[in-house]
Amino acid sequence: MAVLHLSSSVPAVRRWARVLRHFTPNWFATTMGTGILAVCLGQFSGSPPLHAAGEALWLANIGLFAVLACIYAGKWLLHPGAALKAFDHPVVSMFFGCIPMGLATIVNGFLIFGPALFGDAAVAIASELWWADAGLAVLAGLAIPLVMFTRQQHAIEHMSAIWLLPIVASEVAAASGGLLVPHLAEGTQLPVLFASFVLWSCSVPLALGILIILFLRLALHKLPPAGMAATSFLALGPVGTGALGLALFSVNGEQALVTGGLGALAPAISGAALLGAVLLWGYGLWWLGLAVAITINHFRQGLPFNLGWWGYTFPIGVYAVATLRLSSIFPLPALAGFGEVLVAALAAIWIVVAFRTCCGAYDGSLFVDPSLEG
To answer: Which of 219, 273, 275, 294 is the least buried, fewest Cβ under 10 Å from its Cβ?
Structure first.
């Protein structure tokens, strides 16, 4: 019996060994999508069921992030050579940006749901996590482009919107900083606001430049293959996050500027940030329409499932939050209604993608590290 038990456990051990070896940072896109849905639901404070659902989803996302972080740490400990190969791969390496972006949704949750659950400790935790998240975002935004320039091979016909992932992490941290500012003591508000402006400027201008290259690539070499279809929505991410960050700077930054002795500049900075938010949000409408059209085109040809489908979730989510934030500033019912439609669409997409991801994780089909091929 002991021999039989041992032999039956061998396949399970081998399966987990394969999962560990083939685990990639792509999996952290699940925490991005889950976290942004929680944040979206948290915007409906007037609806206790939606707010409670967002809170439960946020708590589950903390557990998900912790599990993924442990698995990935295990890969670095047991298979450091395999883990290092990700930096040489022109696609896998881009997903390192998903780690700080997934963490940012947890930081936001501490500010939206945390105070009711943990009291003042929630803000303290969010503040510490935010600085760590900002550091990881800057590291991803510098390290991945550096390996692109020195170790990887790229061609414009193979380029896609995944180039944005390590770059956008900094502006996601910037938006989280804008949300954090009003929760801080007066003496600590201005440093976080200033750092958030810097993070935004390290990301959005570069992301807008990449979008120009992406437009050229699509014009010259047409649509990417069906397996990369979800990347069409990634272009919406930096535009939506950039608009959200500026909207938060406009609403929450004025107090920090006043208490920091810059009250005379506060109205101008707040107004400029709000104008920039509206302009970026409008630009996002174009990319949203294009992404929907591209997705419909791919669906007609067949769309194979992979972890890239999580690319549908986070961009729609941040654009939805930006829309709802702007609707709280501009009393336009149509704007608020559009934001609610986006959240409903996000929830429907998340259910489908989460279910299929669970199935793929259970049978092991989603644990494939392209950097280990050959």
So the answer is: 219
Tell me what the pLDDT averaged over the chain comes to.
Answer: 94
Q: Please say if the pLDDT value at position 12 is more than 90.
A: no
Name the token pair of 5. Answer: 């038990």
- Asked if 196 contacts 177 with a C-beta cutoff of 8 angstroms, the reply is yes
Residue type, 219: A
pLDDT at 86: 96
Residue that the structure tokens 């990417």 belong to: 224
Decide: 372 and 75 in contact? Cβ < 8 Å.
no
> CA-to-CA distance for 313 and 293, rounded, in angstroms?
16
The amino acid occupying position 139 is L
* pTM to 2 decimal places: 0.95
Continuous H helices in the chain: 2-21, 29-42, 48-78, 80-84, 98-112, 114-118, 121-150, 165-180, 186-201, 204-221, 231-234, 236-259, 266-301, 313-329, 333-363
Return the DSSP state at 160: -
Report the alpha-carbon distance of residue 221 to residue 216 in Å, rounded: 8
Q: 105-161: per-residue pLDDT in tens? A: 999 999 999 999 999 999 999 999 999 999 999 999 999 999 999 999 999 999 999
